[in-house]
Write a structure and sequence with these properties.
With 276 residues, the chain is α+β, with helices and mostly antiparallel strands. The protein is built from four helices and 14 strands. Strands 1, 2, 3, 4, 5, 13 and 14 form a seven-stranded antiparallel β-sheet that branches. The chain has a five-stranded antiparallel β-sheet with strand order 11-10-9-8-12, covered by helices on one side.
Length: 276
């Protein structure tokens, strides 16, 4: 599938601010299921853009605006071609759960087995994970069971949480948004010693108007595979991956700091257009 996506983040400050330093993670990955045809990032007030790759291979643009300004707009425009990842048969058992410790032989896996800023492997999370996977002997089937449990136990409720909500609070209140569903599932998988990472991106639906979040688990021999607990399904060609990390704190689309008023207004809009 081929998509054109415009993502605009706008800040309006009650009084001028200055010394604004920002990082942007809006340029999608290029990989075997996703090819970026074009990408353009615009900043107003105009600023010089630089970019680098972070520890998790995300493309990170960064810029600074020293002069006083009352508004800030970050807009990305991209075209991307996606395809379906290789399908795992519903009843497949590609890797024994009893041998999941061997996943540590894979590169850069350690971070995705630990507690992180929004995720912790508490006794409650571990118990929840064990209940979800009772009787499972395969890593992939265990991950699917965790996804089904998260989807069944949590209620999707817009504006019920914020980007600063911890997974422990989501489990307590049993409600949240896509970010929270991903955080809870990541914690449960890590508690089972299944490497799990957070993904930010887009889900191309008719009503898409925001970023989306899901997660990936590492299945030895197959690699990283995406699962979306919010919708209770593996990812397919309608998902566009922007960035990955331990949790949301590693992948915020726009993050930064500045000097000045904390009284500000934030508006975010996303437009996804399928192309023939």
């Amino acid at each position: 599938m081929r998509f054109e996506i415009t993502h605009r983040t706008s800040y309006t400050y009650a009084s001028p601010v200055r010394d604004s330093f920002n990082e942007v993670r809006l340029q999608p990955f290029n990989n075997h299921v996703q090819v970026v045809e074009s990408f353009l990032l615009k900043i107003l007030p105009a600023a010089r853009l630089r970019h680098r790759h972070d520890f998790y291979s995300n493309v990170v643009h960064h810029f600074e605006i020293i002069e006083p300004h009352s508004t800030l707009t970050v807009e990305s425009q991209l075209r991307v071609i996606t395809s379906n990842p290789p399908v795992i048969a519903p009843a497949a058992e590609p890797w024994p759960l009893a041998r999941i410790g061997e996943a540590l032989r894979e590169p850069r896996v350690f971070d995705f087995l630990q507690d992180s800023h929004f995720v912790e492997m508490s006794p409650e999370v571990w118990r929840f994970a064990l209940d979800a996977t009772a009787g499972q002997t395969d890593t992939w089937q265990a991950a699917l069971a965790v996804m089904r449990m998260v989807h069944a136990e949590l209620k999707y409720e817009s504006n019920s949480t914020s980007v600063h909500t911890h997974a422990r609070d989501v489990l307590r209140d049993k409600r949240g948004v896509c970010q929270d569903f991903a955080h809870v599932m990541i914690g449960m998988c890590r508690a089972l010693k299944i490497p799990a990472l957070y993904v930010s991106g887009y889900l191309a639906t008719e009503s898409a108007s925001a970023t989306h979040a899901w997660m990936e688990v590492l299945i030895p021999g197959l690699g990283w595979r995406g699962l979306d607990p919010t919708h209770n399904r593996p990812v397919d060609e309608t998902y566009i991956k922007l960035a990955v990390g331990r949790d949301y704190s590693d992948v915020a689309p726009v993050a930064g700091n500045y000097k000045g008023t904390t009284d500000r207004k934030l508006e975010v809009s996303v437009k996804i257009t399928p192309l023939s």
